[in-house]
Amino acid sequence: MKFYIYTFGCQMNEHDSEYMASVLLEKGYSPAEKESQADIILVNTCCVREKVEHKIFTKLGRLLKLKKKNKGLIIGVTGCFAQLAGEEIKRRMPQLDFVLGTQQINRLPAVIDSLHSLLKEWDKMLKGDKQIKSFPCRFHRRSPVQAMVTIMEGCNNFCSYCIVPFVRGRERSRAAEEILREVKEAAVKGYKEVLLLGQNVNSYFDPSNNGTSFVNLLIKVHQIDGIERIRFVTSHPKDFAYKLVETVRDYPKICKHVHLPVQSGSNKILKLMGRKYSREEYLEKIEWLKREVPDIGISADIIVGFPDETENDFQQTIKLVEEVEYDGIYSFKYSPRPLTKACQYPDSVPEEVKGRRLMELQELQKRIQFRKNQSLVGKVFEILADGVSKKDPHALCGRSSNNKIVNFRGGPELMGKLLQVKIIRAGPNSLFGEKV
Ligand code: 5AD
Ligand code: SF4
Questions:
Q1: What residues contact residue 234 under an 8 Å CB cut-off, 6+ apart?
Q2: Would you place residue 7 in the very low, low, confident or very high pLDDT band (cuts 50, 70, 90)?
Q3: Distance (Å, rounded) from C-alpha 176 to C-alpha 409?
């Protein structure tokens, strides 16, 4: 029996897909190379932004046609969109075999068992588990180099635009002991890098030992032999503490990169978004980072066209981006999401204005990235080779500690190795270098 998994959305979702693959492996399934060879297809969904939903329904519609050829094919839908819109999915596509929301994903083993006994199961999912899910021992990871490790799930922040607290539930941290066990196992298997995952890692708090904060957890992970690099996402600016900046500065294995979503540069919009920090407080934290960790890479998420965003508000975002000089941004047009506070506000910024603002922001960011990347030509970086270059199948790619993507000539034997690479060319999105 073979499985195939489609993943939409963020790293948290990618990691959930790894969890689902591990459950299926444990149940005796093996991965299929193509969907046409699969006996079970899971579509792991996202609903953080509206556009993805259209893609998901299109994908499901196409997959359901496969059921006509292969009557035994099982198709299940999981993830945030399943949590949010289980009933609607069921109504529109009753041929699907099951739907499991994010907060019920730990029922996947039981659902798979019930499928074995040929029970078709529709699962409603709105009442979530308070517990963080437990992870299978033999964890199936998508990368041989970077191990993603969940440290917490859910979110209590309820930013006014965001559906995550509704679909992922309240914040819950995983016991530090369990996290450290998982990281140690990854190290034994040869993983060089760990990515610690949580919606808001800064508010990590070990439920079984009141002493362990996020900084303490980082220090404990740092002590694990074999792990050469530690990354973490996502930080919330309101909880981002000076102590963390010092920790990033002082511990060499902690990568010099911070993803600190700002969302807007206007205090009025930040307030409407319920972000609980001001532009000035955010910029102060950026100052700490730049002062203490001079080669720090900084990235952020930004939303344009939030209700009531005037041209002046938007220009505050532009000015902030010019001032911070991010190494990368993820930028989005605001879309109203059900259940959120902001979906009650009129979506007042016209679509074309959102589009123009997004373009202006992205063009500015491209210029900044190009300029910053150009200044790196001639420098040598330590790169962890983690894949084949997207630009050249004979080249590898990897990342610097501060998260720059670097392509360089090299064979597969270099995968997973830390290499010194001298930058010889720079584009806005990536660098090209030579091994030295
Ligand atoms: N509209 C647009 N972007 C959103 N994001 C979250 N919710 C919305 C929304 N309703 C963006 C935020 C967040 C990222 C994961 O997705 O920038 O940080
Ligand atoms: Fe959503 Fe805000 Fe929580 Fe991030 S911090 S997941 S934007 S509610």
A1: 198, 199, 200, 201, 259, 261
A2: very high
A3: 39
Please give the pLDDT value at position 136.
Answer: 64
Q: Is 166 in the pocket of ligand 1 (CB under 6 A)?
A: no
Pairwise CA distance, residues 268 & 385, whole Å: 43
Return the closest-CA partner of residue 44 out of 76, 90, 22.
76
Mean pLDDT in residue range 261-284? 98
Determine whether the shortest distance from the Cβ of 307 to ligand 1 is under 6 A. no
Is the beta carbon of 335 within 6 A of some atom in ligand 1? yes
**Where do the DSSP E strands lie in 305-379?**
328-333
Q: Which residues are CB-neighbours of 263 under 8 A, at least 6 positions away?
A: 159, 269, 270, 273, 275, 300, 301, 302, 303
The alpha carbon of 12 and the centre of ligand 1 are apart by a number of angstroms equal to 14
Amino acid 72: pLDDT? 76
Q: What is the pTM of this model?
A: 0.82
**409/392 Cα distance (integer angstroms):** 9
- The tokens describing 1, both together, are 């029996």
Q: How many CB atoms lie within 10 A of CB 350?
A: 10
Distance 264 CA to ligand 1 centre (A): 11
Per the CB < 8 A criterion, the answer to whether 108 and 23 are in contact is yes
pLDDT in tens, 210-228: 778 999 999 999 999 999 9
